[in-house]
Amino acid sequence: xxxxxxxxxxxxxxxxxxxxxxxxxxxxxxxxxxxxxxxxxxxxxxxxxxxxxxxxxxxxxxxxxxxxxxxxxxxxxxxxxxxxxxxxxxxxxxxxxxxxxxxxxxxxxxxxxxxxxxxxxxxxxxxxxxxxxxxxxxxxxxxxxxxxxxxxxxxxxxxxxxxxxxxxxxxxxxxxxxxxxxxxxxxxxxxxxxxxxxxxxxxxxxxxxxxxxxxxxxxxxxxxxxxxxxxxxxxxxxxxxxxxxxxxxxxxxxxxxxxxxxxxxxxxxxxxxxxxxxxxxxxxxxxxxxxxxxxxxxxxxxxxxxxxxxxxxxxxxxx
Length: 319
Known about the structure:
globular
């Protein structure tokens, strides 16, 4: 059974709608820049872990945490996200960063990849084709192929419609612990999973932690190389471009709203309904008699509408 989520308590724990996850320094810097903040301004220590408070956008309170490379280990994506969900109890987790592409003829450096599905490639069977003359190797992937959250996929699909930045592809992405930079190995993976549009190293941990706590998840990364042995070519510039594009697309979608946790979303709806009510009330009347407040004063004595607002609000009579 999934381990129960138990949010940490205390004034230092913010009510978090979205948790963003990064890995590399370049990804962290791109995310902080995209939210118009710095590490010094946004850094917070919560339950002995460093987080970055990115503030609110689109009605959602957002924090960021940084994982080490890969899904496993002491500080890989799985333990990092698992601990963060227990601490913050976010409504959703979005991993943002850089990835490798698989087709330089059709893809460009900086293209954004949204993982509609993930295919892990670490868990596999390597067998022998006993019917072939050369007893060829047979590789069968045995890892999960999970789909991302329908709610998050919906937001990102529709966010693409008015997106004016880099190209975006929604499809399956590979995820494994190997840092791939060899064209033969990349092509072997592509042969095993022909529909894959790219790959990265932390997505399996994201899925496992989110699934364990029944939290929505999605992975958004942009292409910084093609895993073909040329990773070092213009490495920093390519990674900076890819990270910036992934962050830009994510922030574009977040600004559209609709990603707050259910309770927070209800609060937003109620607040907006109250504002609408007050706007309509102001349109209908600019001046009311004092008797409208239930006072004993002469009805001929007038009061301002703003005073009525205050009185009604104090008595919680506004629906």
